Fold:
Amino acid sequence: MGLIYADIELINADDLALVRRNIIGEEEIKRMQVSMLVDTGSVYMCINESVQAQLQLSVQERRKGQLADGRIVEYDVVGPIEVRFKNRRCVVDAMVLPGENEMLLGAIPLEDMDVLVHPYRQELVVNPDHPYFAQMKLKGIR
Structure:
């Protein structure tokens, strides 16, 4: 299977909260459309410094992570970010990769939005078992 990219909308979720409280107007919400590599091997969502600056996302903490080559690195974690794909949305934090590095849509937002990689079409799709709404797995609740 080849590389799969998805068109994703990223929104500064703090701005959405300010709109709900009537502190700023809708036109002041910082948002952007990006193409992200769908990476089921990555747990976290990763954006780059350019996107962080444009969305003016606050640093929440610094966290260590392991790269594909095994190296351990430490990067800023920013957020909150509302992530939108088709009729799905979730709110997550993201690690900030240096410079213009390729951004990754990892397992946490994929699971939260209930989306799947379609291997034949090689694209990200909403879960066909739940086409109109995201459905979460709540194992162990009785």
